[in-house]
Amino acid sequence: MMNMNRRTWLGAVSGWLGALAAQSADHPRRKRSCILLWMAGGPSQLDTFDLKPGHANAGPFREIATAVPGIRIGEHLPRLARHMNDLALVRSMRTREGDHGRATAHLRTGYTPQGSIRFPTLGSLVSHEWAQENADLPGFVSVMPQGAFAQASVAAGFLGPRHAPLVVAGGALRVEDLQARSSRAPQRLDLLREMEADFLASRVGPGVMSHVHAYDRADRLQRPAAARAFDLTEERPELRDRYGRAPFGQGCLLARRLVERGVPFVEVTLGGWDTHNDNFDQVRSLCDVLDPAWATLMEDLKQRGLLDETLVVWMGEFGRTPGINPRSGRDHYPLAWSVALGGGGIAGGQVVGRTSADGLAVEDRPVAVPDLIATVCLALGLDPAKQNPSNVNRPIRLADPAAEPLSEILS
Known about the structure:
This protein is of the alpha/beta class. 34% of the residues lie in helices and 16% in strands. The strands form 5 sheets. Strands 6-5-7-1-8-11-4-12 form an 8-stranded mixed beta sheet, sandwiched between helices. Strands 2-3 form a two-stranded antiparallel ribbon. Helix 9 (247-260) runs parallel beside helix 10. The chain is globular.
């Protein structure tokens, strides 16, 4: 390996990735669904998954033991600590993007923003690979996208409108304007298609396809079985309480209902992690929402036999500074931070990478964003080297060609 040049090495890895992805895809229990828990704003790794006890950068939080001897995490995630056997922590993420917008786009697409190329977000990539053509439910659902940078998390890019997400927002987590399908709806839709046929045939393009797809998706969503997928009142009140009645907790429950019904990719956003001020009070409050929701999601998926088929990813756009600012806050920090993966396709109960005692630098196993994306692809049975035609007539791989997946955590 030491004598290989980069091109030769990448060629060898490309062949290995294809073989591994093919093996996953042919497996009778191949991984088909992904739930992304998106922590908008950038969560503090030093107060969640990579504490530095005894150092001046540590802050006031303590470490607690987990279900895996030797792995310790923040004290405000006690319920999640019981599920460490099913989780792998990556403590050595290292990126260059410290701006919210660029970093969000980077983490969500696997590529840094580049001129006119409209890179699709991860959910759209998975939808493109796994969504069923005639399914009533969409291939990608985004629950509670928030803030000025939400667009980067819901852009289908060059994959087109069919793989854009259905957005579920608002405190009640309802699909906007979703109503019961009337008995005359099919005839009305047929009439609309007949009236538009000549116009649409003479004006082929993304705008036209977006129009057609919007009507088709609306019609499918109004079918009773599809509409019921979003009705959380069907769930036991005790289970809803365990998830937590905050929108994020109920969003995690909705995510379970959707993957249970075959939706390949669901993301649920918990905002508020941009903790420049009062970091510790904010992190404590956010973990009070995150811990029961995430832990119950893992329990619920396992009890229903879905955890082996569902990859759960926890991440934000970057981490927070080890140093504590004068406002008791932590600022943007892309140089050393953490993500977590669990469930389907992941060998849990382990930690990848290590940061220095002060948290300022990655000391072992640096992981770049393309490495993470390639790992997610392989866990889902997808070939990271697969190419899709782009809007600039250039083929783009699911993951950057330089990606080195985390083979040690792939099951």
